[in-house]
Specification:
It holds the Pfam family TerC. The chain is built from eleven helices and no strands. By secondary structure, the chain is mostly helical. The longest helix is centred in the C-terminal third of the chain and has 30 residues.
């Protein structure tokens, strides 16, 4: 009877971890799709799989250090800056001098972008999973690995939408800017320094992040297009 209860607890814990990972990982599916959208069709599946695999492995490792990780001052602020740059970069077209680079280099670049962005965006996810697992790293690994196919499928769905509706790329980049703004507000060290903020700032700062990504991204994209035409 004890074994049955123990097994039941295990199942409930794993289901909790899967639910957390899928619900909080929806944004990650968007960034995975954005990072892999410029790969040749035959490499997209590999980019999504290996990028997700690397991000998941790193996420499991980060669970060990979850609470200590978030205690570092200004970590979220640094992560938000990195996320803003990733969002801007994803709006830029490929430069001409990249045309001769082998597909494997493109693939590795996409995988690297997926891993970095997923890690930055998954700090809250990591803490939530660590809490649900009650210190059982085996359950963390099992729950996250089970959720991988769901995230991969979601990324492939977003890729198809971006192929049919390019505006989705802009929305995805804006989402990264919005999340970056939220990360700024969640930085404890910055909150202590700034003091209490008005309620409207919880919408204004993420919105500013989204607009910043779109504005800078489109400006740089137009500048690159003009340089390309002027050659």
């Amino acid at each position: 009877m004890h074994a049955l209860v123990f097994d039941g607890d295990l199942i409930v814990t794993i289901l909790q971890i899967i639910t957390i990972d899928v619900l909080l990982g929806g944004d990650n599916a968007v960034v995975i799709a954005l990072a892999c959208r410029q790969l040749p069709p035959e490499l997209r599946g590999k980019g999504i799989f290996w990028g997700t695999f690397g991000a998941i492995v790193l996420r499991i490792v980060l669970v060990f250090f979850a609470l200590e990780l978030l205690a570092f001052p200004y970590l979220r602020l640094a992560g938000s800056v990195l996320l803003l740059w990733i969002g801007i970069k994803l709006l830029l077209p490929e430069a001409d001098d990249h045309a001769g680079i082998p597909a494997s280099t493109h693939l590795l670049g996409a995988i690297r972008t997926v891993i970095v962005a997923d890690t930055v965006m998954s700090l809250d996810n990591v803490v939530a999973i660590a809490g649900a697992a009650n210190g059982h790293i085996g359950l963390v690994a099992a729950g996250i690995l089970i959720s991988v196919p769901i995230i991969v499928w979601g990324s492939q769905l977003v890729l198809r939408l971006m192929d049919r509706f390019p505006i989705v790329i802009t929305f995805g980049a804006a989402l990264l800017g919005w999340i970056a703004g939220e990360m700024v507000l969640d930085d404890r060290a910055l909150a202590i320094r700034l003091g209490a903020l008005p309620p409207w700032s919880h919408y204004a700062v993420p919105l500013a992040g989204a607009l910043l990504v779109i504005g800078i991204g489109h400006t740089l994209a137009k500048h690159r297009q003009r340089r390309k035409i002027g050659r």
